[in-house]
Design a protein that fits this description.
Layout: H1 17-31, H2 39-46, H3 50-62, E1 66-68, E2 75-77, H4 89-94, H5 96-106, E3 109-116, E4 119-126, E5 140-142, H6 149-152, H7 157-165, H8 172-188, E6 191-194, H9 197-209, H10 217-229, E7 246-255, E8 261-268, E9 271-272, H11 275-298
Helix pairs in contact: 2-3, 5-11, 9-10
């Protein structure tokens, strides 16, 4: 999160100011990928005229680098935009063996996810004995509430509110509950996803829909439906009843050296567990996340920046 709008740096005398403006538009949309922007917002942030902004965006849309939502009029990165992987390949490989060890320790499927282009993307997934995990590498969900709680529980209030609002209208009980859930995830160190029939159906539909670089509007509304149809996570007073609920995932955040969440690690029980089992799994995923955070923090490029791309 923490995406700052506007040009990412001060520019000197550019050889081609028109080209610079195109780059500025692309960079702005990359930084604002979790919240697509209107033409007016883009022009205001970059200090360009409406006609210039429209001409640039029309060209980018024609190349599929950018898409325009016909209902909201907002612009986001399109399927033709070339994406570099956010996680350095060496870093992904570095976490492979620890992930395999976590899988063996827990005796269940595990995965690592990141935020990329407004999606929660699974970048690695393993299951015991070489079995096929239910949540596989490459699968994506829209990064809107209630999905991705472990990414936002440690973020500023404004970023959390943006994530909450992205799902659209939801019931008042859910809206009152979510700040308490995020506080509890931060206190506990990990999030717990309840397994329910609505969640399974919505998840299957979301995986089928999430094929482009920009979140599908229908997928975003489906994600919001989870908030209306399910109870999200567990508050302290509810843990006594945890054995009555099947659980989908138990997830912990992985931080970079700036203490921003760049990945999450998840165990995938997909069954009922005792409170003691939940706490044991939570301990192991948090230990993995702490070790992974140390590894991420050590990986910096020549400029001193973390090799994990923090662009949302």
């Amino acid at each position: 999160m923490n995406a700052k709008l506007g040009p990412s740096r001060e520019h000197g005398q550019d050889p081609s100011p028109p080209t610079r403006r195109v780059i500025d538009v692309v960079e702005l949309l990359v930084r604002a990928s979790a919240a697509p922007l209107t033409l007016a917002e883009i022009c205001r942030e970059l200090g360009i005229s409406r006609s210039t902004g429209h001409a640039i965006l029309a060209t980018l849309c024609a190349c599929d680098w950018v898409v325009r939502d016909p209902l909201s009029g907002r612009y986001a990165l399109g399927s033709g935009f070339p994406h570099m992987p956010r996680i350095n390949p060496a870093m992904s490989q570095m976490l492979r063996d620890p992930l395999r060890q976590l899988c063996a320790e827990l005796g269940m499927a595990v995965c690592i996810s990141e935020i990329n282009g407004g999606h929660i993307a699974v970048i690695d997934s393993l299951a015991p004995d070489g079995a096929q995990p239910l949540v596989q590498a490459g699968q994506r969900l829209p990064f809107v509430a209630p999905f991705g709680r472990e990414f936002v529980a440690w973020t500023p209030t404004a970023d959390t509110q943006e994530w909450l609002d992205a799902a659209g209208p939801v019931n008042d009980v859910y809206r009152a509950r979510m700040p308490k859930v995020l506080n509890e995830i931060q206190r506990r160190g990990y999030g717990i996803e309840r397994l329910s029939d609505p969640l399974l159906k919505v998840y299957a539909a979301l995986v089928a829909l999430e094929g482009g670089n920009a979140p599908d509007p229908v997928a975003v509304r489906l994600a919001g439906a989870v908030a209306d149809l399910t109870i999200v996570d567990f508050l302290p007073g509810e843990l006594a009843q945890i054995e009555q609920c099947a659980l989908a995932t138990i997830s912990a955040p992985i931080f970079d050296r700036h203490r921003e969440v760049v990945m999450t690690v998840s165990a995938q029980p997909y069954r009922q567990l005792t409170l003691e089992e939940v706490q044991r799994i939570g301990y192991h995923v948090c230990a993995f996340a702490e070790n992974a955070s140390s590894l991420v923090a050590e990986q910096v490029d020549d400029s001193g920046e973390t090799v994990v791309n923090r662009t949302r």
